[in-house]
């Protein structure tokens, strides 16, 4: 169920989020958006965002993912109104807002720095924006109470920020943004200052809150795991351009480009030659079954994730073979719940990275450095990249 974000309306359930995400209304639309910053003396302008087209659906948790300098934060700041586009259109629920100031847009932003007032209590921090809008006192009390309950900070209303942990301060910053009933919430790496375990816990909390309120969250991060954990869809950016957009599984299992494959988790990038529409030949002569629309004889790169590969002894029953190649264990790394193996193939190509989960599963083998092994994979595990 979704919150009613009408100004002054209670934060109560209204209509359910549409069952078909593709049919949802567009909350944020960027068409042909470009942002140029002046270069140094005698230099050309720096293009931070380059002709970006992007539709973000109402009610989804949408992440902009990429390395530092890829344009994701600049894109968020243009939606928020802290930067204006050099070209293109920005629409929020079909209203053009590209040149509107931040206070005229139905959005709020949560930053990595919480920016809480140290001399105010938690409830005073949350209420501050409503007081600046001259909202009635009874309305302020009701709305502050609702968001405090939403972020699970009951009983701490009278505390000041210095009396809270980092995760609790982040919850207060989130409550302060939500109390204004924005139609879209923008989050700029809000968990970056937290330690790993707390960050992982807050990821689940953010997703819970987003699902409960039902409004659109647009989240900026460079953390792949964070994006995969929380997002309904992810847009991967590099060099100011959108490289791929899709659900977490599609982005992870079916990357389109070498950059996306390499940036989203660990992967093996294998040079290959297309045989036909359903197979390619690796450099050691191994036939790999993989779909491709490239002409026969084309040189391509095939991506396959380490956990999609399995290890068997080199003399294992060949009747069990799926697709396979042979090699020797070059390195073994214990990772707690899994073991990482590097395998040098017969042709001496870059080693294959293989990840095998630990546990009591029957048939799971352990291998030593120097041992000859057979590496196997299912035909659906590999993807031919576009570049």
Polypeptide structure, described:
With 387 residues, the protein is an alpha+beta fold. The protein is built from 8 helices and 20 strands. The chain has helices at residues 72-80, 122-132, 137-150, 166-178, 196-213, 224-230, 248-253, 258-263, and strands at residues 26-37, 46-57, 61-65, 87-92, 95-96, 107-111, 184-188, 216-221, 233-238, 241-246, 268-276, 279-282, 287-289, 299-304, 309-313, 323-334, 338-345, 352-357, 372-377, 383-384. A 6-stranded mixed beta sheet has the order 6-7-8-3-9-10, with helices on both faces. It has a 5-stranded antiparallel beta sheet with strand order 13-12-11-14-20. β1 and β2 form a beta hairpin. The chain is globular and about 75 Å long. The relative contact order is 0.11.
Quickly describe the structure.
The chain contains eight helices and 20 strands.
List the SSEs and their pairings:
Elements lengths: L25 E12 L8 E12 L3 E5 L6 H9 L6 E6 L2 E2 L10 E5 L10 H11 L4 H14 L15 H13 L5 E5 L7 H18 L2 E6 L2 H7 L2 E6 L2 E6 L1 H6 L4 H6 L4 E9 L2 E4 L4 E3 L9 E6 L4 E5 L9 E12 L3 E8 L6 E6 L14 E6 L5 E2 L3
Helix pairs in contact: 2-3, 2-4, 3-4
């Amino acid at each position: 169920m979704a919150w009613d974000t009408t100004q002054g309306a209670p934060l109560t359930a209204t209509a359910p989020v549409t069952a078909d995400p593709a049919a949802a209304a567009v909350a944020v639309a960027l068409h042909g958006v470009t942002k140029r910053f002046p270069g140094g003396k005698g230099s050309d302008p720096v293009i931070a965002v380059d002709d970006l087209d992007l539709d973000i659906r109402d009610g989804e948790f949408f992440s902009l993912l990429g390395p530092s300098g890829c344009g994701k934060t600049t894109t968020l700041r243009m939606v928020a109104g802290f930067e204006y586009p050099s070209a293109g259109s920005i629409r929020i629920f079909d209203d053009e807002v590209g040149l509107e100031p931040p206070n005229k847009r139905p959005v709020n932003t949560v930053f990595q720095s919480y920016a809480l007032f140290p001399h105010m209590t938690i409830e005073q921090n949350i209420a501050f924006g409503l007081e600046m809008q001259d909202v009635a006192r009874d309305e302020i009390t009701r709305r502050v109470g609702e968001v405090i309950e939403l972020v699970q900070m009951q009983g701490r209303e009278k505390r000041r920020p210095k009396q809270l942990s980092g995760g609790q301060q982040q919850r207060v910053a989130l409550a302060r943004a939500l109390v204004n009933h924005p139609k879209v919430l923008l989050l700029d790496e809000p968990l970056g200052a937290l330690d790993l375990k707390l960050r992982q816990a807050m990821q689940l909390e953010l997703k819970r809150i987003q699902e409960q309120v039902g409004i659109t969250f647009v989240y900026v991060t460079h953390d792949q795991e964070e994006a995969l954990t929380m997002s309904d869809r992810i847009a991967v950016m590099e060099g100011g351009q959108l490289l791929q957009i899709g659900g977490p599984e599609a982005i992870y299992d079916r990357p389109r480009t070498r950059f996306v494959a390499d940036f989203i988790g660990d992967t093996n990038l294998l040079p290959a030659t297309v045989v036909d529409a359903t197979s390619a030949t690796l450099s050691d002569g191994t036939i790999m079954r993989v779909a491709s629309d490239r002409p026969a004889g084309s040189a391509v790169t095939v991506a396959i994730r380490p956990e999609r590969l399995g290890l068997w002894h080199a003399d294992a029953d060949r009747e069990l073979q799926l697709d396979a190649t042979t090699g020797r264990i070059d390195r073994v790394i214990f990772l707690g719940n899994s073991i990482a193996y590097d395998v040098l193939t017969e042709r001496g190509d870059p080693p294959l990275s293989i990840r095998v989960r630990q546990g009591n599963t029957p048939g799971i083998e352990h291998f030593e450095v120097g041992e000859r092994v057979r590496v196997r994979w299912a035909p659906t595990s590999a993807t031919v990249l576009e570049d």
